[in-house]
Amino acid sequence: MASSEIARYLDTGNGRVALDPEGYLVELSEWTPAVAQALAAEEGRELTEEHWEVLKVIRHFYERYEASPAMRPLVKAVGQALGPEKGRSLHLMKLFPDSPAKVAARLAGLPKPANCL
Amino acid sequence: MILHILNRPPSSSLAYRDALAAMDATDRLLLIEDGVLGALTAQIRHFQAIEGRLFALREDLSARGLEGQCDASVQVIDVDGFVTLTEEADKTVSWF
Amino acid sequence: MSSTVDFSGDLLVILRHAPHGSSWLREGLDTALVAAAFGQTVSLLFQSDGVLALTKGQGAGPLGQKGTAATLDMLAMYDIESLYLDPEALERFGLGEQDLLLPAVALDAASLPRLIAGHRLVLTF
């Protein structure tokens, strides 16, 4: 769930956006690609074309289903949109290490997935 | 055997019908909380189909002063009996 | 028809409450999604007022509360594809299959006990 508690602000180079205690956007509508870049840069990640296409898939998932996906449905959605080669958890683990569903949702400006650990 | 647990009375809720429809020939039904109203002689017709497999929780009957009105065909059990029924069952399903 | 269906699975979630009036339906669906996210095979049974969860044209509540239509749509993404309903409950509201968002298998009287027996865990909401 998105929290309304503001823990800190993130500088996007073109203004600032509020983050909740877990680093998710407080105001989902404030997301821009620059927000994703700034969030990724903080963690020392660089966003490649392969990252962006997954962020697009997960944002589309949220738009359609009004919820951030857990890992399994994220893998399925990526597979449907980008083909079976990319619709594998290994591919997502490589792009968004640790917890792809959570990391990708955060970078895409979506709430933390409710139904994953 | 599956233990079905019902906490709504047949006088105000149709949950009992769905519970009965879900039971096979060996399943048991335990009435608890407001569900024990269904154990009264005046209401027992709703449970004719499962005679011999109907239980009611004594604590809930006596709290409502209804132990005396409970139909003779109902097996009245206490909380320990509830535990035993649960242990004998493959699983439990709640209806409310 | 439904006598040939495979009724087995890890979890059966029985949904007995209509959308919007309480949080039971949402909680039931959330439970199903969590179980599916962890790889359990999940089946859903729409029964009693719960069949109203399936009707077309649902929207947000008067205070902007989230509806359930998007969540129902999402079930397939969690591989929750075994959906059953009680045809009598549907009839009680004058509804038919053409009024539903998703196809669900109408259960006959003999199938309901088999559906329950076939799942390791049954949770009612």
From TrEMBL, chain A:
Keyword Cytoplasm: yes
SUPFAM superfamilies per record: DsrC, the gamma subunit of dissimilatory sulfite reductase
Subcellular location field: Cytoplasm
Principal place of residence: cytoplasm
Name of the top EC class for this enzyme: transferase
Pfam families named among the record's database cross-references: DsrC
The enzyme's E.C. designation: 2.8.1.-
Domain of life per record: Bacteria
Record keywords, A-Z: Cytoplasm, Transferase
Family affiliation: Belongs to the dsrC/tusE family.
Known function: Part of a sulfur-relay system.
PANTHER family hit by this protein: SULFURTRANSFERASE TUSE
Name of the molecule in the record: Sulfurtransferase
Native species: Billgrantia antri
UniProtKB/TrEMBL annotation, chain B:
Superkingdom, taxonomy of origin: Bacteria
Record Pfam families: DsrH (PF04077)
Gene3D superfamilies noted in UniProt: DsrEFH-like
PANTHER family: PROTEIN TUSB
Descriptive protein name: Sulfurtransferase complex subunit TusB
Organism ancestry: Bacteria, Pseudomonadati, Pseudomonadota, Gammaproteobacteria, Oceanospirillales
Encoding gene per record: tusB
Automatic annotation (TrEMBL), chain C:
Record-annotated membrane-spanning stretches: none
Family: Belongs to the DsrF/TusC family.
Protein name from the UniProt record: Sulfurtransferase complex subunit TusC
Naturally occurring in which organism (per UniProt): Billgrantia antri
Native organism taxonomy: Bacteria, Pseudomonadati, Pseudomonadota, Gammaproteobacteria, Oceanospirillales
Gene assigned in the entry: tusC
